[in-house]
Design goal:
Elements: E1 2-7, H1 16-28, E2 33-36, H2 44-53, E3 59-62, E4 65-66, H3 72-85, E5 90-95, H4 99-104, H5 113-128, E6 133-136, E7 141-145, E8 157-159, H6 164-172, E9 176-180, H7 184-201, E10 208-217, H8 221-232, H9 239-248, E11 258-260, H10 262-273, E12 279-284, H11 291-303
Parallel strand pairs: 1-2, 1-12, 2-3, 3-5, 4-5, 5-8, 8-9, 9-10, 10-11, 10-12
Antiparallel strand pairs: 6-7
Length: 304
Amino acid sequence: MRIGIMMGPDRVAHTIDKIVAMSKQAEAAGLDNVWMANIRAHDAITALAIAGRETTRIGVGTAVTPSYPRHPIALAQQALTAAAATKGRFTLGIGLSHKVVIEHVHGLSYAQPANHMQEYLAILMPLLRGETATHEGKHYRVQDITLGTPDAQPPPVVLAALGPLMLKLAGTYADGTNTWMVGSRTMKNHIVKRIAHAAAEAGKKNPLIVGGFPVVVTDNPKKIKQALAEPLALYGQLPRYRAMLDLEGVSDPTDLAIVGNESQVLEKIQSFRHIGVTDFMAAIFELEADAFERTLALLSAAIN
């Protein structure tokens, strides 16, 4: 199981210099990946392309870039450019976002999201493979488009998928899924099981399964859980995340945060290795003076 960190879910607006510095720090610690959310700050693909040029080994990936505001041709161009800039170390994570964001913020229709994503992937995936895309659908219509990026290998694509329809799309058309705060029972019996079945039916093996969680190594778990209540509250209200909490049988998003001392956090992280998670993605919330450094050190030790 690969281990990485995630930048962005705490809604801190990092500078480009900070993003590069954190990427270098994660690489120096021996981590496998650095992921970046695309919320309301820097464009994640562009920022990670820069970070990838400033590092030498670590993988970089979006977690995730919303599909609706970006035409699939434009996103394919961005992703291939990032893949070339990072010499093949870029992973494209995409997702639908949420109705409240797409309709209320962007002013776009969120009707038929699964159908939208199926059409989106029908255009995006061939373009990333260097093929010609032609599609005549309800949401998109493109004709004989090919992208010329000879210095870019097709980047892996992970689809933010929680429900059965999206997990089927992820297993059938993409290379895997990227999840956020899905409990261990739900991960094993719902996420891993469904996407593995869809991938097998499509003739694919070993889909990527990225599992993201808030992580804090601390000697004050009760205090940290209380501090996490406000930044995580939204995930208990958004329908897709609420459904995953209910499936896991927990009431509050903080119940899924991984908080404790080194041995407690390490034990929890290692438990995901055994249920099929291929990439563990830690969102370190800096709620104490040494929280980032201490948690990063634990993640580094967890690789060995």
